[in-house]
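Section handout 9: paired folding examples.
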Amino acid sequence: MSDEVQLLHRLRQGDEAAWAHVFPFLWAVARRAAATPLAALPASEVDDVAAETLSRVATRAASTASLTHLRALTATIAFRQAISLARRKSAAKRTQPPTDHPESPSAEPAGPLERLDEVELCELLALLAEALAALDPETRSFLWDKHLIGLSYRELADKYHKPVGTIAARVARGLAKVRNSLRQSPHLLQELTAFLR
């Protein structure tokens, strides 16, 4: 078996060492594709798109035929996500009413937790606590800050004094572990996945 075939097999099995080996390469591919001039995203959003891309690629590794296909898949997903984000931002600007008082501060957008009522929030937090119990404390903090507080990958990197790529990889791996632990309850996994996107 060639080295590429062995590496691809290990990636399909979720081998962390194999993912750590290809992560720098795929991270660069995802960032380059997300930084397309067509989307004109700031660096922090490019990092967010790249990290989300790698988390999606990790779930699709089993369907890839080669590392070249994995690279192409990464570039395609990152490009499409960047364009989609730019379109959503543009649409949001068009739907906002013009302000007569530019000096008045605009209202902060609601975070994911602010959209839930108290009962839903309590249920979600209990489910997340169970799913996150298997993670190390630092990864748990990254996931909490990214998905519940709403920090970008750049903000997480600044807060924890770690490279953006490290943060993104740990978040992606943490989410994969949470998903794997939730596979026993597909309905719950579907609800949490929808909430965390």
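Moving on to protein 2 of 2.
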Amino acid sequence: MRMSFFAGLAAAATVPMAISSMAPHLAGLPTVVQSEAMWTRLTDVVNGKKDSTVDSLRSSHDKSSAIDATLRIPVVAMEEAFRYEITPAGILGRWPRVTTGLVKQSLRGYRVPLVSGTRIDDLSGSITYWFNSQGRCSKIEFIGRTGDARRLVELLESRFGLEQVTPIEPGTYLYQLTWSNQALSWALIRPSEIIRESEPFDRFAIELSLSALSVN
């Protein structure tokens, strides 16, 4: 099953020529501007609604003079974003705009937009860090997209111990870490129904939830 998954990802994640055609527009721009330019369709749908943290992103890639510094999104590597060592103070100090006041059972959430880079296998979307009463991050949730999910899958397997299981929904890829027949952590990857050459970063939709109890 693992081999068929990676074979499918390799076929779907072929980088189109559209990327190279964008390079002249991005040359010389700061990394944060490049990231916003590449991820022109950064959206987050939570319970059927767009997240306010990403509503302000603009869709044009020719906007180096139009981006308000207060709305710039920091580039955070995937391997760095999915760690439990983060703190509320660290989040507020790094992202210029944070959605707070989120509550789930006894946890308090901080939601920010995530752009992990400009590579085809980077992520764009919304990441939520959930903290317990001691201020420790105990859960990480992410909703977003990527053009190639193989790098994310390798991280989930090596760092968090997730394994591929048979999905309920046909045509999707499901990874879980279970304990006593309950999923402590999971990741669902859905290939886009329509793959467009002009949208190379939107080939896979990602939803995942990681519990700190599952850290190796």
